Amino acid sequence: MKFESNLRRAQGLGSAKSGLHHWVAQRITAVALIPLGIWFVGAFIVLSTSPFEVAYSWLSSLWTATLAIFFVLVLFYHGYLGIQVILEDYIPHEFTKWAFIITIKLFSVLMALLAIVSILKIFLS
Asked: What is the pLDDT of residue 1?
């Protein structure tokens, strides 16, 4: 018979610091998305009534392309982190959980790369 408390037994299961990096990364990306999101939505509203050539030349600017790429990277990383937490919390079967997490990670990377290549194609042309 063991006379350990539940807390003591839980300490042996893993470090409480293992989720700290994930938590901090999620908060940092959330804070970064506030100004980037306002910038993106504001630009989208202004450019929605503009001709194609104006939007094209706007995205051809170095600063705009850089901010757009940064926005895409932060957005997809933040989305991946959030979905990962949901999957870890609500899918009990380990293999299914990790299969979904790997699928979501690959999907996020591919979509971010597609967006970045599209931005770079406009910027470099």
From this structure: 52
User: Is the Cβ–Cβ distance between 78 and 29 less than 8 Å?
Assistant: yes
Interatomic CA distance for residues 66 and 123, integer angstroms: 10
Backbone φ and ψ of 108, nearest 5°: -65, -45
Q: What is the DSSP string of the chain?
A: -----HHHHHHTT--GGGGHHHHHHHHHHHHHHHHHHHHHHHHHHHHTTS-HHHHHHHHTSHHHHHHHHHHHHHHHHHHHHHHHHHHHHH---HHHHHHHHHHHHHHHHHHHHHHHHHHHHHHH-
Region 77-83: mean pLDDT is 96
Q: For the whole model, what pTM was predicted?
A: 0.82
Instruction: Give me the domains of the chain, ranges plus CATH numbers.
Output: 21-124 (1.20.1300.10)
Nearest to 73 by CA among 24, 108, 39, 27: 108
Comparison of pLDDT for 5 and 24, the residue scoring more: 24
Return the closest-CA partner of residue 84 out of 105, 113, 109: 105
In the predicted model, what is the mean pLDDT of residues 34-58?
94
